[in-house]
Design a protein that fits this description.
- Helix 2 packs across helix 4 and helix 11 packs antiparallel against helix 12.
- The protein starts with a helix and ends with a helix.
- The chain has a nine-stranded parallel β-sheet, sandwiched between helices.
- It is α/β, with parallel strands linked by helices.
Length: about 260
């Protein structure tokens, strides 16, 4: 069983939920990326999404876009992200997911990308800008290399589209809590009804992100969903910190308290 599938199977058996932080590969440095992964695991993360820097991150707000820009200026490439993950992999049991633009996969070649990602220690990928109507080959290639393939499901997606998205996905479904771009928010929309609708179409774990930044929001999300995804809030703290590994660990430990709060309700 794929590591991500095993993590969610174990959590479901235990009645638990997951915290899924997002970081930008190479931001603020590749050394930090390598060192922060085991620290996030110690802090309570189950799976970490690693964004592969891209020059035009279409769904990312200013915090993540800026981190990706700085990483690119520092010479971070997909290959260097793979090398860093390979160095970190022996020291962590985290599920690791590459968040990557379709253009990067195409430029490297799908076969080469999947082979190298799996060899580096990634367990899955998310391709946020993939054309869902032509994603079959990419989903098939990921499966052939033992990688999960998770698609984004936006608010307002109709049931026919939901059925198509979940049929292509493996590992988990990434549900967007809101429309727009990534970034911290103080409010959360009602999620219960939407998650109930999606569960009618799939048994895959449902993971909710876009705008989460507090333990209370994590607790709210994981009352309904299998995991809470936190991105911009963590990326911002790491970019502003003199000790990004320490502060990332402290922030994720704080957020993981929301999982406990939700499980106690």
């Amino acid at each position: 069983m794929n590591r991500i599938e095993q993590i969610f199977a174990d959590l479901r058996r235990e009645g638990g939920t997951a915290l899924m932080p997002f970081i930008v590969g190479g931001a603020p440095s590749l050394d930090v990326t390598r060192e922060v992964l085991p620290a996030l695991e110690e802090a309570g993360a189950s799976i970490v999404e690693i964004g592969v820097p891209f020059s035009d991150p279409i769904a990312d707000g200013p915090v993540i876009a800026s981190a990706m820009h700085e990483a690119l200026l520092a010479g971070v490439t997909p290959r260097r992200v793979f090398d860093t993950v390979a160095e970190a992999r022996p020291g962590t049991a985290l599920g690791l997911v590459a968040m990557v633009s379709q253009s990067i996969v195409q430029r490297m070649g799908a076969e080469s990308f999947m082979t190298d990602a799996a060899a580096a220690g990634f367990d899955g990928l998310i391709v946020p800008d993939v054309d869902v109507d032509t994603a079959d080959d990419l989903a098939r290639s990921a499966a052939e290399h033992g990688l999960t393939f998770s698609l984004l499901l936006a608010p307002g997606t109709n049931e026919r589209r939901i059925a198509r998205l979940v049929s292509l996905s493996t590992g988990f479904i990434y549900m967007l809590a809101r429309t727009g771009v990534t970034g911290e928010r103080s409010d959360l929309p009602d999620l219960g009804g939407r998650i109930e609708l999606v569960r009618q179409h799939t048994d895959l774990p449902l993971c909710v992100g876009f705008g989460l930044s507090t333990p209370e929001q994590v607790a709210h999300v994981t009352q309904y969903a299998d995991a809470a995804i936190v991105g911009s809030a963590l990326v911002r703290r790491m970019s502003e910190s003199a000790d990004p590994v320490r502060d990332a660990k402290a922030f994720v430990r704080d957020l993981s308290g929301g999982l406990t709060a939700a499980s106690g309700r």
